[in-house]
What we know:
The protein is mostly helical. It is about 75% helix and about 5% strand. The protein has a single domain (about 1-210), classed as Orthogonal Bundle (Arp2/3 complex 21 kDa subunit ARPC3), CATH 1.10.1760.20. A hairpin with a 5-residue loop joins strand 1 (about 30) and strand 2 (about 40).
Amino acid sequence: MKKKTDVRYLAELSLLTAIVLIMAYTPLGYLKTPWGVEITFIVVPVAVGSIVLGPKAGAFLGLVFGLTSFAQCFGASPLGVIFLQESPLGTFFCCVVNRVLVGVVPGLLYLAFRHSSRLRNPGLALCCFLTPALNTLLYIVGNWIIFHDTWLNVSVSTYGYTGGGGASLLIFMMGMVAVNGLAEAATCLVLGAAVCKALEKTVHRNEVRSAA
């Protein structure tokens, strides 16, 4: 039984990893906005893996997501190129380390809900919503801490920042959190929750029954 479970776990993790990679290198994973910032939907398979397979799987999927994001800084993302030139280590932290946390935290949180039949569904929805929200928040906070001065020199026409620093920069970045975070969170809440529920009713139905 354990061997069968391990094979299924690896198969599901491999499938989700493939989905992350496909979304990362096709238009399916990113929506480019007029102000140059990308809204990412790759958090959906990360959320599904973290909730259904656990925080370790979430960490791995977050790592894959982060590495693909970091790879885009070598030419595919204009903003990423700027950050990479300023601080390769800081860019790696914002792109990769943060995304590992994004994969771990929802999985850990869902462990507190999954054994309660009353709280399982609300907890699942909360974790799906939290994954992209945390992704956006950590990315913006990392940008604010590491690349504050870099943002002061970013092109207005390309990224929509009007300059001035201080409160102006903070308001701009909080606007990014609101737009990106809410768009990603709404998508993940709908798609992620639906996929997680479908897996619980089919592939993982025995685990759900034993936890109830």
